[in-house]
Design goal:
By secondary structure, this protein is of the alpha+beta class. The protein is 16% helix and 37% strand.
Length: 189
């Protein structure tokens, strides 16, 4: 498997839920199953910041990616996904959010996105008067993931995932955690 196809393989499980919902609503069928990774031995590589997740023992990695050589973003969840915590590492990192045991259903809003040849999903939370949106998406010939911070309509910060992305963001997570839909929607930058 080439390096370029690897992020797609990791995003497909989250997007499979989006495609299943679309197929159910349109009377169609879902996409082919995710192909299995090759079992050929590869040369060992240093773990990426996404692989060295900041999630504590007992937490599930809901989303994780490197956003630079020394920075990463992650969403860590309780095993039942009733609680989610946003974590950021690097020079401009802020403290984890939420700092208390606020349920994911109260702290986050969610949505799915449709694109030609793919789809996407996002989780949004409000912090310090700004909307923070963690997103993933795949379309024909492109894939994107990252974080956008907005103050009203103005984007004040944007972090783009670099390399490997681990994501469970999608309808199955939203349903399991009872995360409400975000009526504002989202446009991937």
């Amino acid at each position: 498997m080439n390096r370029q196809s690897r992020p797609i393989m990791l995003l497909k499980p989250a997007l499979a839920g989006v495609l299943a919902l679309l197929a159910a609503g349109c009377g169609g069928t879902t996409a082919d199953p995710v192909p299995q990774a090759s079992t050929a031995a590869a040369a060992p590589t240093a773990p990426s910041p996404a692989a060295a997740t900041p999630c504590d023992a007992g937490q599930t990695v809901v989303f994780s990616c490197a956003t630079g050589a020394e920075s990463a973003i992650a969403l860590c969840g309780s095993p039942d996904h009733a609680r989610l915590t946003y974590h950021e590492s690097g020079s401009a990192a802020a403290p984890d959010w939420p700092a208390d045991d606020t349920p994911a259903a109260t702290a986050f809003r969610a949505g799915t996105l449709m694109f030609s040849g793919g789809g996407g999903a996002f989780l949004r939370f409000d912090r310090d008067g700004q909307a923070h949106t963690v997103y993933t998406g795949i379309g024909r010939g492109w894939e994107k993931a990252g974080l956008v911070v907005q103050d009203g309509e103005r984007t004040v910060r944007e972090l783009t995932c670099d390399g490997e992305v681990v994501s469970q963001i999608g309808p199955e997570l939203f349903e399991q955690a009872a995360i409400p839909a975000d009526p504002a929607g989202f446009v991937i930058p």
